[in-house]
């Protein structure tokens, strides 16, 4: 209803957004992502929920050559370590073995076969990585040991909340931390001008052709969303829904306040 009322073709700052706003962070992530394809290893991408980590990676991986890279995306991480490896095995087209030792051997043999026989690099993106069991982190360096630790045959991205980076500083994860080739952090967009540019881009990408908010409205949205794109989009969409019964073709400050109050 609100999309038709405001003449939108998609949700502003929604999951179906095709044109992500970027003034540097996504471009930097893309450069580092491609570097890690040429120099396989482990990477860490952190940020508060809703800042756009997964959306950025989805955009970057869309154009990868499937004949050179097999992208494996996993977000179901709140399970035991065996479940995680079983998911990986299934993604690689394997029947997961019951015993962990055999499961590891089968997966590593498949990864080696992809590298030597097909010249394909598996790119394993583990989202919500802050939920991974500690046992997984502890033995993962051993899993990555190929051919007497002389070859790097996988690229692995751990993607999660900001606390994930702190976990990697603990002494018992030193072996895994030493294998991290790069770290990146996505921060909320709190600068006023940057935030306004992000919102305007999100609205225009959704097909909006008019000015919906005043300067004070942008400031209300910035503070209410704490600079997090997902929150800003949810407030915007809620405000649009509230504006429709009133016959409004813009979003006055009181409507934005009502939307934020409703979402508390």
Structural overview:
It is a single chain. With about 260 residues, the chain is of the alpha/beta class. It folds into two domains: about 1-15 and about 205-260, Orthogonal Bundle (Helicase, Ruva Protein, domain 3); about 25-185, P-loop containing nucleotide triphosphate hydrolases (Rossmann fold), CATH 3.40.50. The chain is built from twelve helices and five strands. The chain has helices at about 1-5, 25-40, 55-60, 80-90, 100-115, 135-145, 165, 175, 190-205, 215-225, 230-245, 255-260; strands at about 40-45, 70-75, 120-125, 155-160, 180-185. A five-stranded parallel β-sheet has the order 2-3-4-1-5, sandwiched between helices. Helix 6 (about 135-145) links the parallel strand 3 and strand 4 (about 155-160). Helix 4 runs parallel beside helix 5 (about 100-115), helix 10 crosses helix 11 (about 230-245) and helix 11 (about 230-245) crosses helix 12. It is elongated. The mean pLDDT is about 95.
Keywords:
5-stranded parallel β-sheet; 2 domains; 264 residues
Task: Describe the protein's topology.
Elements: H1 2-6, H2 25-38, E1 42-47, H3 53-61, E2 69-74, H4 81-91, H5 100-117, E3 121-126, H6 134-143, E4 155-160, H7 163-167, H8 174-177, E5 180-186, H9 192-205, H10 215-225, H11 229-243, H12 253-262
Largest sheet: 5 strands, parallel
> What Rg is obtained from the alpha carbons, in whole angstroms?
22 Å
Give the class from helix and strand content and strand pairing.
Answer: alpha/beta
Number of domains: 2
Number of strands: 5
Number of separate helices: 12
Shape: elongated
Strand content: 5-15%
What would you say the CATH architecture of the largest domain is?
Answer: 3-Layer(aba) Sandwich
* CATH fold topology of the largest domain: Rossmann fold
> Uncertain spans, ≥5 residues at pLDDT below 50?
none
H-E order? HHEHEHHEHEHHEHHHH
Average pLDDT across residues? 93
């Amino acid at each position: 209803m609100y999309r038709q009322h405001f003449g939108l073709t998609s949700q502003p700052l929604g999951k179906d957004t095709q044109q992500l706003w970027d003034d540097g962070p996504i471009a930097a992530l893309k450069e580092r992502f491609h570097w890690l394809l040429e120099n396989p290893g482990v990477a860490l991408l952190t940020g508060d929920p809703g800042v756009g980590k997964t959306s950025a990676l989805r955009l970057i991986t869309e154009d990868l050559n499937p004949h050179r890279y097999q992208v494996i995306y996993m977000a179901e991480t709140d399970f035991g370590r065996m479940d995680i490896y079983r998911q990986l095995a299934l993604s690689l087209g394997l029947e997961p073995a019951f015993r962990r030792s055999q499961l590891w051997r089968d997966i590593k043999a498949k990864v080696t076969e992809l590298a030597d026989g097909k010249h394909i690099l598996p790119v394993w993106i583990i989202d919500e990585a802050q939920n991974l069991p500690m046992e997984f982190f502890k033995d993962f360096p051993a899993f990555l040991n190929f051919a007497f630790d002389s070859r790097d045959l996988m690229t692995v991205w751990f993607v999660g909340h900001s606390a994930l980076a702190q976990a990697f500083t603990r002494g018992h994860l030193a072996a895994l931390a030493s294998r991290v080739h790069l770290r990146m952090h996505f921060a909320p967009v709190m600068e006023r001008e940057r935030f306004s540019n992000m919102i305007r881009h999100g609205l225009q990408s959704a097909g909006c052709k008019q000015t919906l908010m005043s300067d004070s409205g942008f400031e209300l949205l910035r503070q209410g969303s704490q600079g997090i794109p997902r929150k800003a989009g949810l407030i915007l969409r809620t405000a649009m829904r509230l504006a429709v019964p009133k016959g409004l073709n813009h979003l006055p400050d009181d409507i934005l306040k009502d939307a934020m109050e409703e979402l508390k």
